[in-house]
Design a protein that fits this description.
five-stranded mixed beta barrel, binds iron/sulfur cluster
């Protein structure tokens, strides 16, 4: 009979969440390194290099891979012979582990979870509660799989129920381009087939906890229908040319995982959940002999990849930039930003909209005239940092505010990640503005360009407050130019054709 102590479970969960906040799984690093070596698109290769360099910096500095440190998802298998030395319930213990991990002073993680999701959306401040799935199984131990899932990739989860004769491959290939780049590829696709609606989603999510091993499957060949589907989808999804960060390129996914389950004769439920460049998951077993021991990876697990700003990058002084200067930039051009950069994301934009609608002035210090805004919710700093990891959030969510910001505040530039919609692009064109993208999943690297940070408005919004950063050579790419042309359209279109010409990649 195995007895699991409350303290051991709490400590294990907390340690594991800290571990995955700064250590990528090694299978992801190895697969991304191979993809980086193979990549033929210069823009995608540059983005992958940033992700790899960021990954090594985070492992060395024990700081988060991404500013979105994720919502915790736990799959727990409890052996039926296990007894507990605990006062808390299982979910309470896991949530206590989450609470400790996210408020650890040496590596504070960003609390992203809000309660009352359809109402006030109040941050719970400690990233609890986790989403917990528990199964009772034969045995005398407890197995826990943990993930910290970023919002950008979770938002791109999709579900359908096909006719039994329908084509799952066609549905996935039609769906992928509609996801845009907000899920920060390259990553993995988790697919759940069968069961009921909620079972298919769970199958997809749990499949993402498995290691990347598509290359082993390619070498040995498929033994089942799901393995055939994995190979077919891996090749065909990559042939779409979406590429790293949606810039166009030969690698969009590093693996396709599939779990299946029997289903009703009338149904073919299919769930698709992508995992992003900040792939974070781990599993451990508790046998009653203390907390889980997690071995750190070795320095040599990371490739010798370096990243340098492109020599032909435009250098922009944010304190003097004009519409005339940015009018000459084209989609895909590299840019290095220096000077003062205001920040803001969903909640700050909503506040600005409310003020403008009431005819009230913006808060002191918030002047967007001829300025750029960075869509970001950074991690709090530790030690001598001026700011914690501070990568871009998905710009598409700010589309509905774009015309207001460009038309009424004097803003001329935006920095975020992923594509903009047609209305936002039209507004950018009309106002002669520009949209630049930073690499999602390279948050620590990006933060190194930030030399000072101060909150200028809406402090009560926490990570969503408006800050003013002073940046030096912050690396970005022109995603939508002042004519409204988008690299997220031209890049994948170009690489889809090139991949078809190159043949099998
Ligand atoms: S890599 Fe992108 S999708 Fe993933 S957590 Fe970071 S910002 Fe979110």
């Amino acid at each position: 009979m195995t007895t699991i102590k409350q303290q051991d479970l709490i400590e294990s969960v907390s340690d594991a969440l800290q571990y995955i906040s700064y250590y990528h799984p090694i299978d992801y690093i190895q697969a991304l390194t191979k993809a980086w070596e193979r990549e033929k698109s210069a823009a995608a290769k540059d983005a992958m290099a940033q992700i790899l360099v960021n990954s090594r910096m985070c492992a060395e500095g024990h700081r988060p891979i991404c500013q979105d440190t994720g919502m915790v998802v736990a799959f727990v298998e409890v052996g039926m012979e296990v007894t507990w030395d605990a006062e808390m319930g299982l979910e309470e213990m896991i949530n206590e582990g989450v609470r400790r991990a996210y408020s650890a002073p040496e590596n504070v993680l960003r609390a992203s979870v809000v309660s009352d999701p359809a109402g006030a959306r109040v941050n719970t401040r400690d990233n609890t509660p986790a989403v917990i799935h528990t199964r009772l199984v034969p045995g005398d131990h407890v197995e826990i799989k943990l993930a910290a899932k970023g919002g950008g990739s979770e938002n791109k989860s999709r579900f359908t129920v096909l006719n039994p004769s329908g084509s799952l491959v066609d549905w996935v290939l039609e769906t992928m381009p509609t996801l845009g780049a907000g899920w920060c590829p390259p990553g993995m696709l988790g697919i759940g087939i069968g069961g009921s609606a909620e079972k298919a989603m769970l199958l997809a999510k749990e499949s993402l906890m498995e290691p990347i091993d598509i290359h082993e499957l390619q070498a040995r060949g498929p033994n089942s229908r799901t393995e055939e589907l994995r190979l077919e989808l891996f090749e065909k999804v990559n042939a779409l040319g979406i590429g790293a960060q949606g810039l166009g390129g030969v690698t969009t996914v590093l693996d396709v995982k599939i779990n299946d389950y029997p289903t009703h004769a009338a149904s073919l439920p299919v769930a698709l959940i992508p995992n992003c460049a900040a792939t974070r998951h781990i599993e451990f077993t508790l046998n009653g002999d203390g907390p889980a021991e997690l071995q750190p990876p070795k320095a040599e697990d990371w490739p010798e990849v370096t990243w340098e700003a492109s020599a032909d990058a435009h250098r922009v002084n944010l304190d003097k930039v004009t519409r005339e200067e940015i009018a000459g930039f084209k989609p895909g051009d590299r840019v290095l930003l220096s000077g003062k950069l205001l920040t803001g994301r969903d909640a700050a934009h909503k506040r600005i909209q409310e003020l403008l609608e009431k005819g009230e002035p913006l808060p002191d210090g918030v002047d967007f005239n001829n300025r750029f805004i960075y869509y970001v919710g950074p991690v709090d700093p530790v030690d001598d940092e001026v700011v914690g990891p501070a990568g871009p959030t998905t710009a598409t969510r700010m589309d509905k505010f774009t015309d207001m910001m460009l038309g009424e505040t004097g803003l001329i530039g935006m920095v975020g990640k992923a594509e903009r919609g047609p209305a936002a692009r039209e507004s950018i064109k009309q106002h002669g503005a520009i949209y630049l993208m930073a690499v999602g999943g390279a948050a620590y690297l990006v933060a190194k360009a930030i030399r000072s940070s101060r909150i200028v408005a809406f402090e009560e919004l926490g990570m969503e407050a408006i800050r003013e950063f002073e940046v030096v050579d912050m690396p970005v790419t022109v995603a939508v130019d002042s004519r409204g042309d988008s690299v997220h359209e031209s890049g994948p279109a170009e690489w889809r054709v090139k991949i078809a010409e190159i043949g099998k990649i």
